Write a sequence for this structure.
């Protein structure tokens, strides 16, 4: 399965994720949903917040697809959550990549997180 298929089928195909992207740990974008262009620098900032120091995010927030989100929480070494009004996003780091999924008004943050977590677990079980 290609990176784009993971985005289209495993994430967007669940109807629990409205937008998604997959990045390497250097920030390089592997695949993304239409119109959701997370810049490598934005992905790298999230990876740094997850793996090293999230404190700058408390003041500056998080930028995804050139839009500002409010930093909500981090699970050090694993994941990060952010929101923008009634929308939000979840980022989960695996051994070799970063999964980012967004939800929109009417969707549940927990359902979006569960879908991303399932794919992240699959990647980790397969060395990714």
């Amino acid at each position: 399965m290609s990176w784009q298929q993971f985005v289209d089928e495993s994430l967007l195909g669940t109807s629990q994720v409205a937008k998604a992207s997959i990045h390497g740990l250097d920030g390089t974008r592997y695949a993304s949903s239409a119109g959701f262009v997370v810049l490598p620098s934005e992905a790298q900032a999230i990876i740094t917040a997850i793996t090293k120091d999230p404190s700058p995010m408390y003041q500056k927030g998080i930028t995804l697809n050139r839009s500002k989100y409010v930093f909500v929480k981090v699970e050090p070494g694993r994941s990060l959550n952010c929101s923008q009004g009634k929308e939000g996003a979840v980022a989960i780091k695996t051994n070799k990549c970063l999964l980012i999924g967004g939800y929109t008004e009417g969707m549940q943050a927990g359902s979006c997180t569960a879908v991303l977590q399932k794919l992240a677990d699959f990647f980790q079980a397969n060395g990714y």
Remarks:
- The first strand starts at residue 19 and ends at 24.
- The mean pLDDT is 96.
